[in-house]
Amino acid sequence: MDSFINELTTEQSKAVIAYYNYLNENKSDSSLKKAYHKRIIDLLSKKRISRYKICKDNDVNFGNFHTFLKGAYDKLSLDKCDKTYNYLL
Which of 53, 48, 43, 45 has the alpha carbon at shortest distance from 85? Predict the structure, then answer.
């Protein structure tokens, strides 16, 4: 990749490096969200709290939460995942 970046202008190389960093950052976010997903699913099966109440108490969009539980990890931010997880503890 270094030889490729050396052939680019300064602005182009900055853009490529920023995009590469963005992709790597999102991979780690995705793995964290996947871990939160598993933990939240486990806690939901143990707790007797409605999904609506969880969303209402944590200011989480119900549709996004439902889709997150179905496996679309990008529907909740890490902050919302963490807040929901801690609420269920």
Answer: 43
